[in-house]
Amino acid sequence: MKLNISQKASGKANASALFFVKQSIQFSDVLNETAEKQAESVLAGMKDGVFEDLEFVELDNKPTIFVDAAKDRGISSLDHLRTAAFRLAKKAMQKQIPMVSLMLADAADEQFKAIAHGLHYADYKFDAYKSKQKDNFQVTFEIVAGDRAASFKKVAEEVAIEQKAITLTRNLVNTPGSDLTPAEFVERAKTVAKYTNGLSIKIRDAKQLVKEGFNGIATVGKGSATPPFMVTLSYNGAGRTRTSKDHLVIVGKGLTFDTGGLCLKPPKSMPEMISDMTGAATALAAIQAIATLELPIKVSAVLCLAENRIGEHAMLPGDIFTAKNGKTVMVDNTDAEGRLALSDGLAEAGLIGATHIIDLATLTGAMVRALGYAVAGFFSNDDALALNVINCGEACCEKFWSMPLEEEYADALKDKFADLKNTGSDAGAISAALFLQEFVPADTAWSHWDIAGTAFVTKKWKYTEYGATGFGVQTLVELARRMAAGENAENETKEYAEV
Hints:
Layout: E1 2-6, E2 15-21, E3 24-25, H1 33-48, E4 55-59, E5 62-68, H2 77-95, E6 99-103, H3 109-121, E7 140-144, H4 149-174, H5 182-195, E8 199-204, H6 206-211, H7 215-221, E9 229-235, E10 247-258, H8 278-292, E11 298-308, E12 320-322, E13 328-330, H9 338-351, E14 356-361, H10 365-371, E15 375-380, H11 383-395, E16 399-402, E17 420-421, H12 428-437, E18 445-450, E19 456-457, E20 467-468, H13 473-485
Parallel strand pairs: 1-7, 2-5, 2-6, 6-7, 10-11, 10-14, 13-17, 14-18, 15-16
Antiparallel strand pairs: 2-3, 4-5, 8-9, 9-11, 12-13, 15-18, 19-20
């Protein structure tokens, strides 16, 4: 897929596309009188069921695709545009149309960004393990932007960077666990650091983790033949242009495969456990995009990498270890391992001077049962950060729902022999967040994202056919962008009446 942005139409397009909402064509006031009448007839036919979404008709003797920009229920106006653009691109690829013209001179930057993301999403495929691979048919989308051409070109560059990061996340998550071990993940992180200007990397292996007291990751990973690692990537902002004193640290759970350990998972859910490293993949991808965009803010990413397997040295229910912050933890359930690994990531974030921490993880089935695959639940100890997460998510068409850090459930995490145990008796997602809060550095704004439902889907959802969604990458980048600009959390996401 290629975007060609220009002020005027080249006349070389094989077809045009028009977005519509109910009886209204969007972004296009350039139709002549004949075309307008024909368009009105088509839209009336849409209402009566004669025509449908992605209808391909002749409009003033020009092939035109009509794309419904309000087809789906429950999503924002910007996400309507994304999904519409995604469907348009899939249709153009299916019909093998070399060039499609989009008249978008009346669109705002945010609307064009949503459309551009949708077009890019249609280009993704994961066929590395197919015996026969077939290239996508390449469609060029001619964006007729008028006076907004220069602005749209800048937006398109940003979208391409974000989409590269999203693709990185999806490829990592979709890779089988036997091929993406913690050691292989480290190699992928080293490659990202090598080819991304401004990124540095620090790697701790199993011996260093134990020596330095990062016993959470070490305990989780000791049952596997492939040892655990903790990787810290750092980006110092754009040199002298950085004015923000904030240091955003993104901590990602990176269980490259999770059998549940001795508290074995049921066979039916096991294949999806290739996605249990989505938090780390998202953190890696986000810092790659942030550094490539040269955002003027200090950002680090901490990847907590391990396999939770059954082996002769596997952790046992009842085992007790001392966490990096000095608290002792009893392993009540070996399948509640992600929070143990994240405890070290949170400690590392404090050691490197975080002012704001986002940890993200495919953490609990409880969150999936509560919010499903369309909404990520999150927790925060800071109201301004929580509002920023919601606003950034809305701008990026990613839904977040604020969950309570209900202290009433905290006592259930107390253990008879250790300071804490890794499971509570009620409210699974809240208990997990309360456990993590025990390891958050003092006076640090923190938010925990439980992306267990949104990270990986087994049925078609918006712009994902199956597998990894790439959820969270864009929101993290947008959060860093707004923090760098010093934007107030109270700034509301714009809504556009025409869609």
